[in-house]
Amino acid sequence: MMKRGSIILIACILLSCILVGCKSEKSTEDSNNKYVTNKPEPTEAVPTEGAAESGSEVVDSQSQQEPNLSYSDNGSDPDIKDFSKLSNYFKDYDFAVTSNVNEDLYIKIYEVSGNYDLNGDGIKENIEAVLSNDYDVNSYVKVNDIIVEVYTDNPTGEVKIIDLDSNDSYLELAYFDDGPSGDPHYKFFRYNGEELIALGEMDINSIMDGRGRFISWFDLGVNFKPPFYTSWKELVDNEFIHRDHDLDQYIGKNYELCGSGYFVPLDKVSEDYYEYMTWDFETMRDFEATPIKILDIYNAKTIFIELEDGQKGLLYFWVGD
Ligand SMILES: [Ca+2]
Ligand SMILES: [Ca+2]
């Protein structure tokens, strides 16, 4: 009996090896097929971490086998020169807004209404929204008869029409939310004639190219001249897809640094860079068109640099709590 059990066990192992083999072959085929839809992480945490850690182990989950590096259809990363602030893509249209604000209770209710053709069929949609931070009020966005309930922390009643991608005939709806603690962002909605789809959100200082490509402020080296970015997002099939960006092109290059940031002199830093970060006032420095060389990039707001006099150090910026 024991013997037969072992044979069955060995057969099972062999079979599963064959199955895993088949799957990885399939995955290679998929990754050759240039267009990779890499689903964004469910939590918007630091996207670069972990990506490098998931090693070369053979795993049988299809999703884990997808490459972490994903680039766009046309194979080239966007040129930051084509990007500008979100408000440049707003349509010149004002919604009617009525507000009910109770300053004492810090409760705000905005009722928004307007008419605009969102799906490009020439017929204006009836657009309504209720945006409130009052728990007793249901916040929602409504296009014709379709309602999407939303959660708003600190709405201001600002609703805009925006063209996220000039390659399609849609115009999107955007409403502003100041967030729970100064995290201002826009939430986007697309009406395709049948559905009203919540696309996701983008922080207010994001930039976009008007062709469905976006760079979040958190991924932007804004204090540098020329500015650089560490990753970007692409609107594909009604989702903002995270795209990694090759950082090697910035390493060893000279930049001008402006504004105030934290600087800790260090000869060497590695992946444990965060252990050196303090938020003491003494580590703050003001830079005015200071020539620097980028030695390493941990994220867009944490960079290892070398100053003109040869001093090296970790430069980092406050990104909110
Ligand atoms: Ca329409
Ligand atoms: Ca469009």
Write the layout of secondary structure elements.
Elements: H1 2-32, H2 62-65, E1 84-85, E2 96-102, E3 107-116, E4 125-132, E5 140-143, E6 146-149, E7 155-162, E8 172-177, E9 185-191, E10 196-203, E11 207-208, E12 213-215, E13 220-221, E14 224-225, E15 228-229, E16 231-236, E17 239-244, E18 254-265, E19 284-299, E20 302-307, E21 312-316
Antiparallel strand pairs: 1-11, 2-3, 3-4, 4-5, 5-6, 7-8, 8-9, 9-10, 11-12, 12-16, 13-15, 14-18, 16-17, 18-19, 18-21, 19-20, 20-21
This protein binds calcium ion (CA) (2 copies).
Residues 163, 165-166, 168, 170-171 line the site of one calcium ion (CA).
Provide an overview of this structure.
By secondary structure, the chain is mostly beta strands. It has helices at residues 2-32, 62-65, and strands spanning 84-85, 96-102, 107-116, 125-132, 140-143, 146-149, 155-162, 172-177, 185-191, 196-203, 207-208, 213-215, 220-221, 224-225, 228-229, 231-236, 239-244, 254-265, 284-299, 302-307, 312-316. It has two helices and 21 strands. The model is unreliable at 7-72 (pLDDT under 50).
